[in-house]
Design the sequence.
């Protein structure tokens, strides 16, 4: 089983469910507070791979919801600068296993990557249930 470095927002309902799925599959989960991690360009950028910049963002972050930050209008440097200043903007979770990093919790991708033993979860584990 894998050692999963898991960057979360403590108290997030979905992050708790995501970690439970990883634990139930036998993975070791090392949880870190996403909001208190001292991010740099070099440490944050690899989690986003070749995703579009808009997919790097937490769509329910207050600055996004208010329209103060419009991810589709940002270049890479500006997006990362904003995320380092306001970590709530970062889509969660950030997951690392060995040298592979990714953002978000797509059940099928994670199952193919490291394996999940539980039946596929049909509920939305990406978006905060408190915003619906």
Sequence:
């Amino acid at each position: 089983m894998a050692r999963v470095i898991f960057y979360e927002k403590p108290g997030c309902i979905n992050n708790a469910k995501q970690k439970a799925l990883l634990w139930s599959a036998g993975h070791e989960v090392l949880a870190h507070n996403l909001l208190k991690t001292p991010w740099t360009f070099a440490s944050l950028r690899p989690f986003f791979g070749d995703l579009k910049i808009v997919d790097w963002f937490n769509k329910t972050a207050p600055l996004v919801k208010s329209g103060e930050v419009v991810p589709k209008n940002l270049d890479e440097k500006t997006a990362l600068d904003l995320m380092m200043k306001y970590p709530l903007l970062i889509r969660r979770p950030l997951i690392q296993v060995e040298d592979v990093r990714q953002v978000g919790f797509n059940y099928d991708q994670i199952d193919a990557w490291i394996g999940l033993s539980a039946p596929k979860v049909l509920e939305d584990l990406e978006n905060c249930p408190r915003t619906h």
